[in-house]
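Input sequence (62 aa), recorded before submission:
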Amino acid sequence: MIKEYRLINKLSQEELAEKIGISNRHLQRLEINEQNTRLLTFKKIVKALNISDDEILTFIKK
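Predicted structure, token format:
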């Protein structure tokens, strides 16, 4: 989900990682579901990528 929305927003991994204050490697791990993240970081990602609450809930239900 993160990668999909990052690409829609035309951001590189480096750009998004910098924008939300995490390392590029951490973002890579999140995109491939290799690592969990804190709620605060998740909120920053959602805000940076303009993901709606409905889209998040749809993703979670899958």
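Checked by second reader. The chain has a mean pLDDT of 91.
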